Amino acid sequence: MGIFGWIVLGLVAGLLARAVVPGSQAQGCLTTTAVGVLGALIGGAIASAADVGEIGSFYDSGTWAIAILGSILLLLVLRALSGRGRRR
């Protein structure tokens, strides 16, 4: 997958992750794309280590699922580290 594919995958995965994770995220387009690309890499690493899949073709539904789940995981970790989303 080329750099353009990673950018598109990251943007879409980041947007979907932001839609799934509750709360207000004040992030721009570049941050959303970065979260998506990093989430895809994290998801791919976890999936490869668990031997359940890997990041492959841009058109593979497994690639998209891993990228989105990795992005959701990254957003949840970032939220926990920043202290946002805690109930008072």
From TrEMBL:
InterPro entries: Transgly_assoc. The keyword Cell membrane applies. One of its GO terms (cellular component) is plasma membrane. It is found in: Cell membrane. Keywords: Cell membrane, Membrane, Transmembrane, Transmembrane helix. It comes from the Bacteria. It is a multi-pass membrane protein. The chain crosses the membrane at residues 62-81. Its main location: membrane. Belongs to the UPF0410 family. This is GlsB/YeaQ/YmgE family stress response membrane protein. It comes from Patulibacter medicamentivorans. The lineage of its organism: Bacteria, Bacillati, Actinomycetota, Thermoleophilia, Solirubrobacterales.
